TrEMBL record:
PANTHER family: METHYLTRANSFERASE, UBIQUINONE BIOSYNTHESIS O-METHYLTRANSFERASE, MITOCHONDRIAL. This is Methyltransferase domain-containing protein. One of its GO terms (molecular function) is methyltransferase activity. One of its GO terms (biological process) is methylation.
Amino acid sequence: MPNDPQTEARLRAAKFVAHNIPLAPGFSTRPGEPLIGESPRTQAIHDALRLFMPGGVQGKTAVDLGCLEGGLTYELWQAGLDVLGVEVREDNLERCRLVREWFGAHERMDFVQADVRQFQPARAFDVVLCSGLLYHLDDPAAYIGQLGGLTAPGGLLYLDTHVAPEDVEMAECEYRDYLSPLKTGERNGLPVRWREYAEDVTQAESSIGNTVSLWLDVASHVDLLLHAGFDRVFEMHGYFGPREMALKRRYARRYWVALKHA
């Protein structure tokens, strides 16, 4: 039953650490923090749906890979998609399910416990959300290939990830002390460049099963996306005002939309 007192009590007692999801006027999962829908990153996702799916999203399916506490899963559901959140940590899933229970959203919002690398759904999705995930993997090139298989013909991949800075950008990069020198090699039959990143596995949002992740450079991301079956790749800007590129260099972050023709 949506909005029942027992679920409210459990939500108030739950310790959400990442996503501030609005539940009712004056009631959210992380009081005092900005709501997840107010984040520029979330606004970019909604813009991508509006701009690249002009026919609307009603009746279409989505997957939120590595969904943490379900904040972006909730945003996709609110946008009108039938959405599945994939999360490996049980404590995160408990919070996801509480949100679903609160809204009575069992028909159009679901969650599954799985490592995204082993996630093999019965069918592909119209919208694939890979936000804050790719840079926690030790073989992101291989996973971009999996993203191609998860995205249905005519579908959209939204990719929000850290990237390996160029040498001239390292001095202003927030993560320079945790990144290796640039390395080169071959992945999926393509030449790629990356930096190794030392994971802090004590953090709730860190990697699963690996202490070192790989951050691909910008060109490698684009080449691998096209190789994975996407026909067009767009980079999104305009969410942080003037000096946005300086901010993106500082945090070594990019937002891409990759499209597959029907």
